[in-house]
Amino acid sequence: MTVEQDITMPIATQELHDFLSDLLGSSGVIDDPAEFARYTTDWAGDKGGDPWMIARPGTPEQVADIVAFCHRHQIPMVAQGGHSGLVGGAQPDPERGELMISLERLNRIRHLDPINFSMSVDSGCILQNVKDAAEEADCYFPLALGAQGSCQIGGNVSTNAGGLNVLRYGMMRQLVLGLEVVLPDGRLWNGMHALHKDNRGYDLKQLFIGAEGTLGIVTGAVLKLAPRPQTSRTALIAVPDIASVLALYAQARRSCCDLLSAFELIPRVCMELAFEAAPDLPDPLDEAHPVYVLMEVSASGPADLDTMIEHLFETGSDQGNVLDGVLASSETQAAQLWQIRESMLEGQQMRGEHLRTDISLPISSLTAFCDAANHAMAQHSPETQVIAYGHIGDGNLHFNLLPPANLDLEAKKALLHELEGVLFDLVDAHHGSISAEHGIGRVKQVPFLEDLDETEYTLLKGLKQLFDPEGLMAAGRILPR
Ligand SMILES: Cc1cc2nc3c(=O)[nH]c(=O)nc-3n(C[C@H](O)[C@H](O)[C@H](O)COP(=O)(O)OP(=O)(O)OC[C@H]3O[C@@H](n4cnc5c(N)ncnc54)[C@H](O)[C@@H]3O)c2cc1C
Question: How far away, in angstroms, is 217 Cα from ligand 1 center?
Answer without folding.
Answer: 14
